[in-house]
Design a protein that fits this description.
Layout: E1 8-10, E2 19-22, E3 26-34, E4 40-48, H1 57-67, E5 74-75, E6 90-95, E7 115-117, E8 123-126, H2 139-152, E9 156-158
Antiparallel strand pairs: 1-2, 2-3, 3-4, 4-6, 5-6, 7-8, 7-9
Length: 166
């Protein structure tokens, strides 16, 4: 997969009020809105340039970090059918600047190349490596944290990187 390039301001179809951003893979439209309580927030439309489905979580996290900031949060909802918008491989996210949502994981844990097995040796989960340009600076610390968490819960952790022996 080619390296994701930084976003540049772009132009979208029509005369919708908002900001368009483009890179080598994605188009993002950000519209500022006001909710029923008068609080300003953003609605983001994210789609691939080739209009194929996305669902690469790491790409979506990277987009959020690039356009909103690494300590900002955005959410995606699966709406009531009466509010459903499903016209293309386009994904809708919502962002309230500075808001921490009252749900989600309380702690950070990221790994790469870590495979978890259960007693019968079957694979329970496996994570792919990061692209070199997206590898977190705290990865070694996070890998050890993940390994310790798995071991304390009775799992075997396999596939650790060479600098982190089992």
């Amino acid at each position: 997969m080619p390296k994701l390039r930084p976003f540049e301001p772009g132009v979208g179809p029509g005369d919708e009020e908002g900001l368009y951003f483009l890179n080598n893979k994605y188009q993002v439209f950000i519209r500022t809105m006001t909710d029923d309580e008068g609080v300003e927030h953003h609605m983001l439309s994210i789609k691939r340039l080739d209009r194929r489905p996305i669902m690469d979580w790491r790409d979506l996290q990277w987009i959020k970090n690039q356009l909103l900031g690494p300590e900002e949060e955005m959410v995606q909802i699966f709406p009531a059918e009466s509010r459903l918008v499903d016209t293309s491989n386009q994904y809708w996210f919502f962002h309230y600047p500075g808001r921490r949502w009252p749900f989600g994981s309380p702690d950070r844990l990221v790994t790469e190349g870590l495979s978890v097995t259960v007693g019968d040796g079957a694979s329970y989960s496996q994570q792919r490596p990061f692209a070199p340009q997206h590898r977190p600076g705290d990865l070694a610390e996070q890998q050890e944290k993940g390994r310790q968490m798995l071991l304390s819960n009775g799992f075997r952790a396999l596939g650790m990187t060479a600098e982190e022996p089992l």
